[in-house]
Amino acid sequence: MRRSFSFFERFSKAFQDYPSLSRIIVVSTISGGGLIAYSEANGTNAVVETGTRKKKVVLLGTGWAGTSFLKNLNNSQYEVQIISPRNYFAFTPLLPSVTCGTVEARSVVEPIRNIGRKKNVDTSYLEAECFKIDPASKKVFCRSKQGVSSGKKEEFSVDYDYLVIATGAQSNTFNIPGVEENCHFLKEVEDAQGIRKKVIDSFEKASLPELSEEERKRILHFVVVGGGPTGVEFAAELHDFVREDLVTLYPKAKDLVRITLLEAADHILTMFDKRITEFAEEKFSRDGIDVKLGSMVTKVNEKDISAKTKGGGVSSIPYGMIVWSTGIGTRPVIKDFMKQIGQGNRRALATDEWLRVEGCDNIYALGDCATINQRKVMEDVSAIFSKADKDNSGTLTLKEFQEAMDDICVRYPQVELYLKSKRMRGIADLLKEAEADDGSKKNVELKIEEFKSALSQVDSEVKFLPATAQVAAQQGTYLAKCFDRMEECEKNPEGPIRMRGEGRHRFRPFRYRHLGSFAPLGGEQTAAELPGDWVSIGHSSQWLWYSVYASKQVSWRTRVLVVSDWMRRFIFGRDSSSI
């Protein structure tokens, strides 16, 4: 009897600790008691437990940053309103695979309502696009994606206590004539589906009778602009699709298909290790992909693209389809907001090291739409000196400096990076010129000018984070943890000392942890560049790449669907229908 009671005691405690488990009752129990238990658990959680109005967090965007924030936010004292024109999260690293049917579009998306429904936090979703942010009145103005009456899209406003901007970025056309009208982009699932249809349509069109040989070649000439990871992966996927599937279905097109990659720089994949760049260029050369380096696009017409070479000459290249992948640009709503807050001359929203938009206490920005404006050591060097000089002697001993070292390295990450780049063991190595003749570092005393001189080169290691899914996901996780502990850290701050002002910062600043860079190169081969100067190129790297990303962000549903798509493709080949 006691054993049974203990079981129910533990079972009851589990529901108290994790209220969301009460949903299991509804699924597994068909009695009225089960339904009543579910109702009481939700009602108590939402109203009685806190007794105060929940703070409203408006989340703009359902990309890597926004979804990561939503998944990791666990404090039930918030009410989250998600606003985005797309009602799903897309696993964007696999979009090039969607363009060629290696993976189906539905396999790489996760409904955002499913993600929100699984949280203890109250969440709701509106399928709309934000077109204006008003920080003074704490409102965002939105336009519904769906037409409500007479085909017109409804406009409405939403109040917030905290605003999290994670709208991402759009493709950058650099205002080159004809790009918007004639090129395909690869930022969204719809883009990938459109490219897939265009590829199949091109083969069907080239198969029609009475076309000249020259016209068939033009139709089957696929041009990729941009030698970054997305452009390179799409070119590789397209090559595999053509070689492994389409040439057997369209045998007459075998000798007519051409793939050209245009890159303005001297190499493709310039952000990768030189070994990966060289391997990728050699592999593309073997595969017959024409890589034109130093080619800058100047104009895109309906049937040809103009590119300027390093020598100054301009060549005209006929094409059937162009995929434009040359970087990212700022969305209109972000541009307008930046002008409001005095950041109109920037390319992205400037935030501090805690992802808070500069000049806006309750607005945060993360992902591709923002960049961290890392504070320079030399801007605060006098304040740092004063904080370290505890006895107000006007000089600083190494012992005093070392006592403040932890806070300095946390607040200014470039200090640690500089020490590593110079292979220095500690801050004392920076001050060797000021050591006493007897070598006793405890007796060394530095004046402010000597201190400035020792730190003068540290800011050379200030780094801007790349606009990648990896950075965005880590920022979302970091900000969610800050929100979870905001009330606690108001009372007991855990961040570094405030160099200008009193006390400590509430949180430790955001630190990006690089997990590696990956570039699928076709033929089941992937190049991986991991921390520690480790480079891997081969078949196993693709599984490593997938496991690193997938384990952090996508559900088991998505993982199973993607693996099943890979199995289907291995057994039956890629789907060549244009649907």
Automatic annotation (TrEMBL):
Its main location: mitochondrion. Its cofactor is FAD. It catalyses: a ubiquinone + NADH + H(+) = a ubiquinol + NAD(+); a quinone + NADH + H(+) = a quinol + NAD(+). Keywords: Calcium, FAD, Flavoprotein, Membrane, Metal-binding, Mitochondrion, Mitochondrion inner membrane, NAD, NADP, Oxidoreductase, Peroxisome, Transit peptide. It is found in: Mitochondrion inner membrane; Peroxisome. Belongs to the NADH dehydrogenase family. This is NADH:ubiquinone reductase (non-electrogenic). The lineage of its organism: Eukaryota, Viridiplantae, Streptophyta, Embryophyta, Tracheophyta.
